[in-house]
Amino acid sequence: MATKIELIDVAENKVIWSAAPTLDTAKNVVGVPIGKLYRFGSIGYPVRPDRTYRVTVEYNNTTGAPVEAGGMGVIGGLFVPAGGRPGLPP
User: Fold this and answer.
1) What whole-number distance in Å separates Cα of residue 10 and Cα of residue 52?
2) Residue 22 confidence (pLDDT) above 70
3) Does residue 80 register a pLDDT over 70?
4) N or C: which terminus of the chain has fewer CB atoms within 10 Å of its end residue's CB?
5) In the β-sheet with 14-19, what is the strand arrangement from edge to edge?
6) Quick one: which of 37, 39, 29 has its CA closest to 4?
């Protein structure tokens, strides 16, 4: 079971975003994290083409054996060019 997902700016060794799944009392996953790295009218976290970013997912594998093709972490996003575009705030 996944216990944490992070988006990291490798150049600065900085965690940009970190979250964990929502569990019920029996420790079953009942929700997945959704984060918003933006605010309308201002810049969220600037993504730069000269930087490397890493998605890291931690798992608690209670089987004691490798779980082939058993894990995944995904971060998706919407990118607005610096300076905005017509009709959007700068």
Assistant:
1) 6
2) yes
3) no
4) C
5) 14-19, 2-9, 53-59
6) 29
